[in-house]
Amino acid sequence: MKKIVSIFLAVITAVLSLSVTASADAVTDEFAAYLSRHFQSYSESEIDITPFVDKYGWSKDKTLEMLSSAYYSHPEFFYVKNAFLYTVWNNKITSVKFDYVIPQSRYQYALGQFDEAAEKAVAGITPDMSDVDKAVYIHDYIILNCRYDSQKKNYSGYNCLVDRSCVCQGYALAYEYILTKYLGMECTTVYSEKKNHIWNYVKIGNNWYHMDLTLDDIVDSYGGNNSDRYGCVLHENVLMSDRACRNSSDLHADWIVAGGYPAASDTSYDNAFWNDIRSHLCYADGCYYYTKNGGKENNRRVVQVCRYDPATGESTVIMKLKCLWYSRRSSQSTADSVYGTQAYTGIYASLEYANGRLFVNTNKSVYSYDLAAKKAKKLYTLNKGDEMQIFGMAMTDGKLRIAYRKDLTYSENYLKLVLK
Fold this sequence. Notes:
alpha+beta; Ribosomal Protein S8, Chain: A, domain 1; 22 strands; disordered N terminus
């Protein structure tokens, strides 16, 4: 009886969120496979982990670390809640109990959705792409197809790719899932306990680099409502060295990378051409295309469409468009004569690519540019009154979607491309 009471008193009843210390070593994989067998059977009873605790002499803290490592190095555990109960005996964790966010009856269907979404993400990968190109492409794809979950309810890679809304954990797990399973690249997760933030660690060649998709996906606030900055993709947190990562944000003040991975010491991409680009980096014919602020001409802002050739390291302006985004209204609620700053052309002029054509927007119109013919034409004009403006554009499921708004309201319109 005494022993039973002691065990009972040692049961921890509070929920503990998993700490992220992703690993890919053999012990972690063995442990993850053991947990997976229980997950697959949707076991609702406590999982006995004493065989591992005893075999490897894990302390309580080490066991918690291994539990998190197993979970975060396997994004396919998307149907398992990232919190658990555990039982302690003699200062050792003897069992754990997980809950499920997707019922067993829907698991196979959900897994199919997850993989179908991942396959869509890699559909635009071409044989001539290097690992750098692939890493950047998936970075942009996820950001363009997922919105940050300001309600903080969605945490998995499934939420990111299927529901298209998640917090930082979902971005990181989706990125890891696609790179490791579909592109054969080495990728894991990095976590800051102090800042409660997670991002990725990806291997290119012989070197490791930091990738933070969440910080590159901007959220705007319209009338107090958080909304995705549509079609805008930052590249400030792409393939960073440890030094660049530490300097890029206070969320990167400290981090944990488990599994024996080396430091990210290579600085080759710390000053890459994409650092100040805020549009989709469209890849075609071995080159990158993007938009940027082109200054002012005749009192109008200019959007430049540029091509960057990795072979030469040179950027070329291939197209210029004038625009008149206004940044405020007069007391009569008409467009003010003071127009948007140069940042407007950098963040609201979006770029997309499909079937040999680039698509770019100004504050009122969408243009296409034929790369082979080197010709541009106006594709669409927003006829919603003078006060309505376009604030971003993105390609989703074969449709070119523009986001437009008036004052502090937000709405969306869909354009379906007719491709020959």
